[in-house]
Amino acid sequence: MTRSHAGTTRAPQRAETVEPASDSAESSTHPVASEEDLLSIRHAVRAATLHAGFGIVDQTRVVTAASELARNAYVHGGGGTLTLDIVRRLGTTGIRLTVEDDGPGIADIEEAFTDGFTTGAGLGHGLGGARRLMDDFTLSSTAGRGTVVTATRWNNRRAP
Amino acid sequence: MNGHPSAGVPILQLGDVLVSGLLNELDDKSALAFTEELTETISSTGARGVLIDISRLELIDSFVARMLMQLTTTARLLGARVIVAGMRPPVAITLVELGIELSGVETSLNAEQGLTALGWHRAARTPAGEAR
Amino acid sequence: MTTSDTATTSDSVARARVTEVLRANADAIADRWVQLQLEQAVLGSDLTESELHEEADALVAALAAALGGDVPVQRLAHGDQDLNRIVTDLSLRRARGGASPTVTSLAVLALKQALLESVRGTTGESDGLLAVALLINQLLDAAGALSFEVYVEGREAIIHRQSHQLLEMSTPVVRLWRQVLAVPLIGTLDTARTQVVMENLLQAIQDDEALVAIIDITGVPTVDTAVAQHLMQTVKAVRLMGADCVISGIRPPIAQTIAQLGIDLSTILTRATLADALAAAIKITDAPGPDGTDGR
């Protein structure tokens, strides 16, 4: 009966290492606990993308991804936090979003990335869509211990 | 007050067309309240067309997208045609990359063209009500 | 005393010795390093001697500070923030200046010679010199590797930026008719290019209040699933804006490929030539509105 609790171990663990925060220049953490928080997160992310010199389309991509991820954490994860980092890599600036929740975790990660898959409000494009909007995307989830999503978009505009 | 949550979004009636515009700030509650208010107004005025100007909307995520799609369907069931006007280029690009096409939702470049498509200038001369 | 203890002790003695030398002879080492770089004389970049001196002083100081800490020697170049930043900057400066990767690595490795000479000069005892040499090698080999790595990535970043600028120039949106725009695409379509095309096209649609956008792919050599998907995305975005899209210039072999791949372009208006597409576009702009009124 080693697998007796099979019902709770369905979640595949795809924990990928998140790069250390040593390259992060500025960082702020925002609560994801109410709908008002979703709004202030959008503001904070928009301000950060402006600060990082992103073009208008990239700004919109990152803010939209943040909105999707934060809503996911709020609706499915029962709330959590979004950490916003401005990161630099070889003269390029990026925005890194780290969204953590203490929710039930994601049972089937592949399924969660499928467009149209949803367990709540929205169109079910949240995770997969956010992944398409960002350059780097990692997700790790453990059943019963919440989900951590890290997503980065790099500024590809020419340096000023 | 009951049954009338206010989204703070004005809905104007021009003949048999309703005109509304979403601002850049749209939280989930206001979005839902707006849907409800607009649906009620369509039904109470018997409007045949609805123009939603989104030229000031800086972001459409899957929640707002779903709202627009549901609104379109609901309005159609009530006999009104919805046109969503003035989507900004970055918003359009982001939506497509999100994987959302807003299928079933009609769009127009700007409010003016949307109103023309809804036949508003003609409807303004004909009394509303002889719809369909 | 076990052997490993002996090794650890001689390592830390060596480390202390090198740190001491770096501190005491900082200026001499830095000068010697600059001299060695100038002797290699193949800098190939426009770094001035005073810039080299500045760089050298910073690097020597950072090395001394880093060695004074307790991060293992092999990991110092990557792990020590200041040292990492200085080596990174040094490589990027050379990458941007057009120096070759060999020169860039050699620049860092030349410091090895400067440092070894200095250690040998300051001490009479030859005991432990081997340990010192090993330590210097470990430290600067890692720094050399880092500089090479950064150099390559730096060049890639430059290439990326340049290709982005090239993309901007190579995807002009032209106005063909009242309310009709066209993008003649030439060359391979990839994600980055599609994104630029999409951005430019959509912006032009908004600015010109265009009703139809023609994407001409006569100059696109091949269409695979990815390219077709990119085209579809562009068409979808154009439609979300409230305009229409016509794709022209699908040559017979490409049409066959599309059919073989089973890509569904049926919802997209296509025409064989740009001229046909323009005719179709004009028809769309002149079409009466759905309620019978003139669209214009």
Automatic annotation (TrEMBL), chain A:
Entries under Pfam families matching the protein: HATPase_c (PF02518)
UniProt cross-references to SUPFAM superfamilies, sorted A to Z: ATPase domain of HSP90 chaperone/DNA topoisomerase II/histidine kinase (SSF55874)
Domain Histidine kinase/HSP90-like ATPase: 57-157
SMART domains assigned to the protein according to its UniProt record, in alphabetical order: HATPase_c
Keyword ATP-binding recorded: yes
The entry's keywords: ATP-binding, Nucleotide-binding
Membrane-spanning intervals of the chain: none
Start-end of Polar residues biased regions: 1-11
InterPro entries listed in its UniProt record: HATPase_C_sf, HATPase_dom
Region feature Disordered, mapped onto this chain: 1-35
GO MF, one annotated term: ATP binding
Protein name, as recorded: ATP-binding protein
Organism (species): Streptomyces typhae
Taxonomic lineage: Bacteria, Bacillati, Actinomycetota, Actinomycetes, Kitasatosporales
From TrEMBL, chain B:
Name under which the protein is recorded: Anti-anti-sigma factor
Stretches assigned to the STAS domain: 7-118
Lineage: superkingdom: Bacteria
CDD domains given in the database record: STAS_RsbR_RsbS_like (cd07041)
Transmembrane stretches, start-end: none
Signal sequence, start to end: none
InterPro entries: Bact_StressResp_Reg, STAS_dom, STAS_dom_sf
